[in-house]
Design a protein that fits this description.
alpha+beta, Four Helix Bundle (Hemerythrin (Met), subunit A), paralog of FGE (formylglycine-generating enzyme), 10 helices, globular
Amino acid sequence: MTKAASTAATSQVASPAQIPSKLRAGPAGELAGPAGDLVCAFQTVRDETERRAAPLSAEDQGVQSMPDASPAKWHRAHTTWFFEQFLLGEHVPGYTPFHPDYAFLFNSYYVSAGPRHARNHRGLLTRPSADDVTAYRRHVDTAVVRFLESADKATLETVAPLMEVGFNHEQQHQELMLTDILHAFSCNPIPPTYDTDWSFPTTHRDGEAEVTLTEGIHSIGHQADTFHFDNEKPAHRALVGPVKLARNLVTNREWLAFMADGGYRKASLWLMDGFAAATNEEWDAPGHWRQIDGAWQVMTLGGLRPVDLEAPVCHVSYYEADAYARWAGRHLPTEMEWEVAARAGQLNDAFGVVWQWTRSAYAPYPGYRAIEGALGEYNGKFMVNQLVLRGSSLATPEGHTRVTYRNFFYPHHRWQFTGLRLADYSV
C-alpha cells in the first residue's frame, strides 16, 4: 500500500511523519514538546490529502476503474474513518461517530474492526457525495484537534505512536489517490489532465554503470528508534553478494529495444503465469502507453505526452520486469542487495522516481510477529504471493521514504509507478 516528488504530486512541507518524534524526549519518556506538535503533524497530513484531491471534480472522485483501485472520495473517507475508529472511538469517552453507516462503508480490510463494504463495489457508492466526505473530514479533524489539545501528557504519550501510524497510513493513500485516478484517466477515450504543470522528476545517471557488492554479512531492516512499519523488523543479518547492481534505472529507450526485439511475444523470456497474463491482457507495452500515428505516447498526470526515451520506464509489472531482465541477460536484485547498495548511497534515483521491483517474495523477516489488535492486520496477513518493491515513487509524499521501506504488490500489478534496475551475478 503501500504505500516522493514531482511538481504536482508531492507536498513541499516538512516531513509530517517525523514531527511526533519530538514528543519522545528520552529514556524517561518525558514529553519534549506540546500537543501542538501532534496537531501540526495531523493538520499537515490532512491538508496534503485535500491538496491532492483539489484538482478532481465530484465525478472524478467517484470513479473506480478496476477492483484494485478505489475512488478518491473513498480514500478521503477511509483515512478519516481510521482516525475516528482507532483514535476517537477508543480514546474519547462517549464519542459518537459522524454517521452510523460510515464504518461499514469505509473500513478496508480490518476484519476485527467489523464488517465492510466489498472493495470491488466502492465505485457504486454514489452516496455519500464528495461534499459529504468533506463534511466528514472536517468533523473528525475538529474532534481530533480538540482531543489532542485537551489531553494530558500521559495520554499524548499513549496516542503518539497511534497517530504516527495514522499519518503514514494516510500518506500511503495519498499515493494511491494519484495512481488510482491516473488509471481512471487512462481509461478515458479523451485523455483528461490532472495537472497541466506536472512534469516527470529529473533523473540522474552519474558514476559508473554498475555497483559491485562483495560477499559479506549485512544488517537488514529498520534499526533506529524512528517510525517504521512492523514488516521492516526485526533487523537481522543476511549474506549479500557477490553481485553487481545497475546504478541506473532501466529507461524507456532500453525498454523500446526489448519491445522491438519481440520481447512481449517470446514465451522463453517469461514466467508461465506472466506470459499468460501478457497474452490474456494483450500487453505489448508498459501500462498507460498508447501508439498514435506510429509514435508511442504515455498517459501521465500531466495528460497524454510523448514517451521520453531517457526517462525511466514506468508502469511495468513484475512479470514484465523479470522478462526484461532475462532478455538483457541479467536478473532483478533481491531486496537485501537493494537495501545494502541504497544505504551506501550507491544507486541513482533510488527514491522519488519509480518503485523498483525486486525478486524477493514478500515474506516475514526472521522472528516477525504481527502486533496485537486490529492494527496487527496492517501488514502481516498479506505476506504471501506478492513481491517486494523498494525505494519510492514520484507520487510518494515527502517524508514517507526509508531505505528499509518494504512495498509489495502482486506480480501482475502495473498501475503503480513501478520500474526496475538490474543485477548481474557473473562477478
